[in-house]
Specification:
The chain has about 270 residues and is mainly alpha-helical. Helix content is about 45%, strand content about 5%.
Length: about 270
């Protein structure tokens, strides 16, 4: 078989595999960051076994991650909304905010472990015992370390080329995908940014308060993606959305659900969302 035919067959098989995955997961779709009626909502990657997701935000992971240094950095990440320089300034500001939430609020709260601290943990994970406390302390410390190490070079634009560079198989449309990482990529910690990310608000703060309400944002998404790395929480995506995460707090999988962890870190307030 000549190289042209082999390449054509390889691409056909890749597309067929992606189509099969979409068919398998239609019934398992939870409420997404996207509108429920959006066609993209049907493209969510499902669980590989026992309904546990093996993907970090709509993909499966190739354990042999390869990532060419500097891939796609010349291309605008939030085209045409902003330059990469502007994007870098914005995302590093978000990084610093995320670190502050962990270092100045959640970790001290877990250290105190008073009634308020336990109530917040109970709200998002359905249990507030010593095991959960230690689970969060360890994971949050790891997230803080990873966030502090992120720089502009860790962010690329989500595209077909970046998918290959990341060593992942993505099923989602780059126009509607918010962001994605490869769970085992603890070497480059590359975060692929979709165009939908660029349209999100920076945070869901209620004006002139320090209260964060339910909803997706750039800040929540950044934290969400960092929790996916294998050396932080190694989180999955059983369901999306902060409200949906709260509704499933009693499910044992909440302890490794990315939006549950991200919402807990930000201290999202349910009453403020009504």
């Amino acid at each position: 078989m000549n190289s042209f035919l082999w390449l054509a067959l390889h691409r056909l098989l890749e597309r067929f595999a992606a189509w099969l995955t979409v068919v398998r997961v239609t019934r398992a779709c939870s409420r997404l960051r996207l509108a429920p009626t959006s066609p993209a909502a049907m493209a969510v990657w499902a669980t590989a076994a026992a309904e546990d997701e093996l993907a970090a935000f709509k993909k499966t992971v190739d354990k042999n991650v390869t990532h060419p240094p500097g891939a796609e950095l010349a291309e605008r990440i939030c085209r045409p909304n902003m330059t990469n320089k502007e994007f870098c300034a914005m995302v590093l500001k978000l990084r610093d905010q995320a670190v502050a939430f962990i270092a100045k609020q959640r970790l001290p709260e877990l250290e105190r472990w008073d009634k308020d601290a336990q109530a917040r943990v109970q709200e998002w994970f359905g249990v507030a015992d010593q095991s959960m406390r230690e689970h969060l302390q360890k994971g949050l410390a790891a997230c803080k370390r990873v966030l502090e190490g992120l720089g502009c070079e860790n962010f690329i634009r989500y595209s077909e080329a970046s998918n290959k560079n990341l060593g992942c198989i993505f099923s989602s449309d780059p126009v509607v995908t918010v962001a994605a990482v490869c769970k085992p990529d603890t070497a480059t910690r590359t975060i692929a940014i979709g165009l939908s990310f660029c349209d999100l608000p920076e945070n869901m703060l209620i004006y002139d308060t320090n209260i964060i309400r339910d909803g997706d944002s750039k800040l929540l998404t950044l934290i969400h993606e960092v929790t996916h790395f294998d050396d932080t929480f190694s989180s999955f995506d059983p369901w999306y959305g902060t409200k949906h995460a709260r509704d499933h707090a009693e499910d044992p999988r909440s302890r490794v659900n990315a939006d549950s962890i991200a919402a807990y870190i930000l201290g999202v307030v349910a009453k403020a969302s009504k």
